[in-house]
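Q: Can I see a sequence and its folded structure?
A: Here is a first one.
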Amino acid sequence: MPRPTRKAAPLGLVLDPAATLPLHRQIGQQVRRAILERRLAAGQRLPSSRLMASELDVARGTVLLAMDQLIAEGYVVAQAASGLSVANDLPDEMLTAPPGRGAPPPAGRTAPAPALSRRARAALRDAPPDLGFDDAPLAFPTGQPDRTAFPFALWARLLEREWRQPLWAVAGALHPFGHAGLRAAIAAYLGTARGFTCDAEAIVVTTGVRQSLSLLAELVLDRGEAAWIEEPGFVGTREALAFADVRAVPVPVDSQGFALHRALAAEPAARLAVVAPSHQFPLGSVLGLQRRLELLSWAERHDGWIAEDDFDGEYRYAGRPLAPLRALDRSGRVAYLGSFSKLLFPALRLSYVVLPAALAPAAQVLMAAVPARPSLLGQGALARFIADGHFTSHLRRTRLLYASRQDALLAGLERHLAGWLESARDPGGMHLVARPVAAIAPRFDDRVVAAAAARAGIAVSPLSACHAGRRRRHGLILGYAATPEGGIDSACAALADVLRDTVPVRRRNG
């Protein structure tokens, strides 16, 4: 059945009421195109808004909204006596725009690729598959909590309480480090849950781990200096250091995590180590006490610094976690990074860094000049959420929930993907790494598999993308925290279908 259209107006406009584009934008786009293609000449009078509305069978307000936008853009002018007309002073180059700019190319031709920088081309090459932004839950996204487990009704009440009569310090000029109440709540929580004391005046609320790490790098390193990073590791670590003009030196990790002797062999002059000792991303290893003490000793003796990324240390399902490096630090050399977005819900966009106290004065100056500081909207509510005990209760509930989902994922992998992928139980975290079995490993390209899975509605991350060096291991990172337990088995079955269609199988000669 053809889609309904409205009859043409004197301008030759044809509107589609079934389109997703609002009617006022359809009007604006078509009039703008008519001007650029010189079908409407400079100075030409346009029909009145009443006439256009009548001819198009739309509300007059719809036409006025479209004309107001065209007036604001300079395509149309409004004069009291003569009504609306096409502007006389449009630039000549705008009126000779080549076909294909802003319009589909002619049949049989493709639009030329834009001239991009090398870093933009690299970003496109390494970008994860496009999974859309709709409400459909996707299986196995990495770094995503279960949003349905978060108490949004309670959160709304806390937001309302905070903003009914906000304090001047909140509604006025906020401290560069963020909401004072939130920083105090974080300090109290860390003292109880993570076992170290810190001054709220040294806590900086940030938009994410990238901003936290970039701030620390700018504080302790000069441009071009080196920092050790884990290999494989979180892609955002490399991005944050690049933003601070710091050279990232990848250090291969093993089953025991980051090894200082390998780091010194790779770059003896580095003065910053970025590590995730409680649960290394993505491999999940835990840094043993001996290596922790070696790293702390290095920082103390060589004027070095340590960035401790504790992105999901709250989720431990077996045994007690080791004390954070920050709790063992005697000389003020460890900055502790945490994130609420990965624990509560991603759109919160609130993380924090606990700086060594000696760095706080300089950090305040740098943060005051940062244009993209974290939104204040949720900081006060989050302070109440933590102080009233809701945060620890939420962690306790989701810890049980995620442990059960890891069990379900392991069962699904065994049931549907044995012979394709192999994985093992992880005593903590929110994801598992599944590697190809030896028989298919030489033909397993995790980027190809991830792209094919995305087309099937499954969000898996390629392990190879976590490597900074040329030697890359392939596998799939499967986040289970945000995947409903009832959908894990069917998602594993669908992933098996993807692998059968994607990974070539070596056939024996008969």
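Q: Show me another, different protein.
A: A second, unrelated one:
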Amino acid sequence: MNDIIHAAGWALIHFLWQGTLLGLAAAALLWLMRGARPAARYGVACAAMLACLLWPAFEFASALQTTPRTLQALVLAGDAGTSPQSELLASIDNRLPLLVAAWLACVGALALRSAFGLAWIARARRTGGRNRHWQERLSQLAARLGIRREVGLRIVETLASPITAGWWRPVVLVPAALVARMPPELLEALLAHELAHVRRHDYLVNLLQNVVETFLFYHPAVWWLSRRIRHERELVADGIAVQLTGEPRRLALALSELEKIQFASQRLALAADGGDLVQRIRHLMLPQQQCSNWKGLLAALGITAACLTGYANARVEAASVPAARTPAVVDFKSCSKPLWPQEELAAEHTGAVTLSFHINPKGSVTDSRIVRSSGHTGLDQAARIGIEKCHFIPAKVRGKPVASWQQMQYVWTLE
């Protein structure tokens, strides 16, 4: 369990720079593709979001494969103290359980919020009103789009805009205010838009988005990518609806009426809606000219190569940094002053001896050696025998006590 906690903690920390790198790369690619079709931009944004999920998952799996024996070997290699970088890593490493606990609490709260959204949709599906005329019209539009599954229609009072929910048995939830106040031809255009989501299985992609948002909620790049995905998805669905109705102006008017009728209410987290209505209307009435840009493609490939190179360099640098650890520390209360050999004292011999002690995970000395002599064998042996009786706080890696070698210096002086 301790290994899982530390692997998860370091994966979350590493995603701070990984998410930033992915967000910057996606932003650059989407800017280069600003003249491309919405479906192409949607694919790039979805790929970046998927990478945000897979990269930390890979880091987590890689961290779990680092065995305690390998980590212990790294500690044994660090025999001569710690650098400021190692001390910082050790400080972070010791606080990982608290970090993971806080992360789990936030994930639990967001998951509960999504669960309430799913429960609300399930209840609206059961209790929502039915309209035979609009159900038949919806079925006709679905057949024209090649949707073979039955798509239900429910009229809901407490809803701001139409949404599509479900995959195996999809349902379109329509606000009662739209049925009562919107002209039929405009409402039909909105239903065509919702059916485009059904044909593209956007509900499943939206569920995946919510999973990524839940687990990686702390990174702004995730939320920016998620908003961009929803925006591009709406533009793609608008294009399909226009092909079905043959009138861009009708859908634009429907969106304009929706903005007027829409009453203030919070949108469900799992609804397949999104995008700014004004931008969608502008896109319908003034579509951008599509053009291919080979220079932009080359620049995009260059950015991708730079991202891969940066990741490779980061992996190399990470491999060169020693494992986060805390060194062994002597418990001076358990020590007694080494006895000065009589012959050395009589000769008034002094000096400093550097010793290295092997300390087991329980903090006991199991072996020792002289690294640098004081110049007097008696003083060297007396210091080693005396300090061997001390008890140590053992070194730790990932919060676990491990065996290590620790150097100490003892100075013999005459007062």
